[in-house]
């Protein structure tokens, strides 16, 4: 991951909604596309990014060949920071499901697949949280 600081240019905003059909709830991603230094940046959040053209910002993420995917953003001009990721009780529920299905594996071996699925989801959630925390730390300690 790398940190870039600069002035926002050519800001464009897009919203993307998924789900919402039948029994599923809808989720909306707010995407900010802009130029920062020599990069075209994409910042995707659950709420709109509080940035404007001309703001000085600091971002952390991954970039290649002129494109940069930001994980965390700090608006130096206004003091706004990307909101923390909220997992709610997802990790607790997955842990309980993994333990419960792990116990049931004693009686019914195919339930092992449910245990493995829960553990994989727990790993992916933890990995995402870890990346976000590392990105925030890098931006906060950037000089």
Estimate nothing, just give the exact number of structural domains: 2
* CATH architecture name of the largest domain: Beta Barrel
- Percent range for β-strand residues: 35-45%
Examine the coordinates and then state which fold CATH places here, giving the name of the CATH topology of the largest domain: OB fold (Dihydrolipoamide Acetyltransferase, E2P)
- N to C succession of SSEs: EEEEEEHH
The general outline is: elongated
Number of helices: 2
CATH class of the largest domain: Mainly Beta
- Major beta sheet summary: 6 strands, mixed
How much helicity do the residues have? 25-40%
Rg calc: 19 Å
Output the structural class: alpha+beta
Low-confidence stretches: none
pLDDT averaged residue by residue: 86
Describe the protein's architecture and organization.
The chain is of the alpha+beta class and 143 residues long. The chain has 2 domains: 1-83, OB fold (Dihydrolipoamide Acetyltransferase, E2P) (Beta Barrel), CATH 2.40.50; 85-143. It is built from 2 helices and 6 strands, in the order ββββββαα. Strands 1-5-6-4-3-2 form a 6-stranded mixed β-sheet, covered by helices on one side. The two termini are 15 Å apart. The mean pLDDT is 86.
């Amino acid at each position: 991951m790398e940190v870039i600081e600069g002035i926002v240019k050519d800001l464009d905003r897009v919203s993307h909604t998924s789900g919402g059909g039948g029994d599923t709830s809808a989720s909306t991603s707010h995407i900010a596309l802009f130029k920062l230094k020599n990069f075209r940046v994409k910042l995707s959040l659950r709420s709109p990014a509080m940035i404007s053209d001309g703001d000085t910002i600091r971002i952390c993420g991954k970039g290649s060949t002129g494109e940069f995917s930001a994980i965390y953003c700090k608006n130096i001009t206004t003091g706004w920071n990307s909101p923390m990721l909220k997992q709610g009780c997802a990790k607790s529920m997955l842990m309980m499901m993994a333990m419960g299905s792990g116990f049931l594996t004693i009686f019914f071996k195919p339930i092992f697949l449910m245990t493995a699925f829960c553990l994989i989801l727990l790993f992916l959630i933890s990995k995402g949280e870890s990346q976000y925390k590392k990105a925030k730390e890098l931006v906060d300690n950037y000089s």
